[in-house]
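Hi team, as promised in this morning's meeting, here are the two structures we talked about. I've kept the exact order from the run log so nobody has to guess. The first one is mostly here for context; it's the second one we should focus on when we meet again. Sequence first, then the predicted structure tokens.
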Amino acid sequence: MLALGLHSYDAQAKPSDPEPEGIQAGGFVMHPGADAAVAFSYQDNSDYGSTKDGLVDIGAHFTTRLLDEETKSWNNSLNLRWRQYWGIGSRKPDGGINVRVSTDADLLKKSFFRIAPGASYTYVSEPEDENLRQDYKNHNVSAGTSFYLQPGEGAIFSERISYHFNGHIYQDRSDITNFAHRIESMTRWNFLPNTSMALLVDFRITHYLEDERGSVETSNTYQNSGSYPVRIKYSLQGLILDRLSYNLGLGYSYVYYTNDLKEHMFIMNAKLKYEFTHDIDLSLEYRKDFENVIYGDYYKYHRVMLDFGALWFKHLKTDLELGFGAFDYRSLGDGRNDMLFSAQAKIYYHFFPGLKLGLEYKMRYNKSDIFGADYSRHWATLNLGYEY
């Protein structure tokens, strides 16, 4: 895939959750925690009828970070989660454990030369439930390192070069097991007050262990189904007014896979964000781009998103997101066109730092030009979490 374009980098993060006290030991701060969630899902398909699904999550986690992060940082986390399903179509309402372990560091943060290594392992158990976004049983291994050249505070130039490896291994599904290598280079220039631009060069090599739709002789060797994409992106961001910021992008993309699937298109993005206060903001974004999916297929899309986020009285956190998208799916000889309307609302109350109660609602309404793809989906999730 070859892409030449602009890309947005949103430097202004949403208000963060109040940090719990933690346990100090040596130069580290440790945060043990636990959480539970109950989710209900309802789907209505015009061709197949309606279904009701649900799950219960019970989880525990343990994170550590350095107490003094001025010159370097080192974060570690362990997450364990039991997920129990019910009412998932013809599948048995089984449960299973999900595990994630990760570590990442940022060394020599104030030096001219910086290095930031990281690695993670994730295990996801069955069963698959598309409505609640659960996946097939799989193992995901990820590792990489980023190198930075930063002349110092106020400098007009900085450089980041990184390498990242990812292995996605599906049990009993070697046709979608894949391994990817990714090399990135990002050059950033700062100019004028609160304005910057960046050039990102992104090269990836992806191998699929097997492709059932091709001529496969053995599942133990790489087949002719990998993708070899290169993306070059340019971004421009800054402030229009003290509280109004922007991200702009425009470019061209070309995608090629070794299974002869090809596509090219112009890509663009535009985002405006207004901060009423430090804790309340409103953003509007338009994006035209494409995404890769399993087997080296892809979909092109136009997407408009409106997002309002706020932290009220330092305890009540709310977020409302509305969206519309037009999607053009393409694979080997097949295609479809969808229109997706979406809405999402979240409300969390922090009784004190570390203890929060939350309610989330999601809605998806999809219109498609193929049989069986029209649907409406609704999710409701109640969360309770504590972290010391």
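And here is the second protein, the one for discussion:
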Amino acid sequence: MGCVSWCFRGLEAGADPAEAIRTMGELGCETTSLILNAREDIGSFWTDARIAQIRTLLESSPVTVCQFVLSARCGGAHEHGPGRAPSEPGVLRGGVPDRPAPGRAHRGHRGALAWIAEPARRGLPAAALGPAKPRPGAKFRMETALGFDWERVWTLWVETVRECLKRAGRRGLRLSMEHHAHTMVPDSASFLRLWDAVREQGLGCSLDTGWIPAQSEYAPVATHKIGRRLMRVDARDIDGPMRAFVHVGEGVMDFEGVARALKAVGFRGGITLEQDKIPGDMRASVKRFVAMMKGCLHA
């Protein structure tokens, strides 16, 4: 139980997670996620020396790393811009580094998993990726590119995931996909379709309790659907209209139902609060979340 490191650090290039790790330890967190959020950090920040420093810090901390996140921004996932349809596999595969920081960081962090954010659907715009307050009179509209071919995009995506799994497997890593709105895997059903296409045990799902209702899914049911393929849980609350993420306890998320579903499917992975970029007392929110979820899981 814990929170992601970017609850207490920035997401800009070169952001150091050390102070966040110390803060999380003080708050009673047991696990966290680290992140590669900028491609240049592969060689400039996540050096062997830096990994050794963070490993030493973790050895003296109650916090372990359950996942190392590779943001879509690091792999060139949006390099062709909004509204442009793909023409060949390199559009997706070309952004996958052959020697990414997560593979190296895994040897420096306990229990880390690899994660790669799904790129936005090729041929669809990259805007409006999540819940937001609409402008007065605004309509929901997304343009598709000329020649957009969903089946071709999906085929390229499956090939890309298989290649990522090969590279992760060579480093002893598993690969988990987190669903976000407006991506190749926006919900549990699309993840299961991907898993059926790939059928590799190294592939799993990171469930985000906030993004699931944004896709009109109920988080506990999604947990049952993903079942044994669930590798990790990002927890966050969301408001009633399903348009804005809010502090834990201020929204409508059924955390008790999520806890019951996790116990029912035999989940044993990390559960982290991902509540970044929300004004307010983050320390209090993390403490409240950890206490609440422990109470739900032990009830």
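Starting points for discussion:
The beta strands are 2-3, 31-36, 64-70, 114-116, 175-178, 203-208, 230-235, 237-238, 245-246, 270-273.
The chain is about 35% helix and 15% strand.
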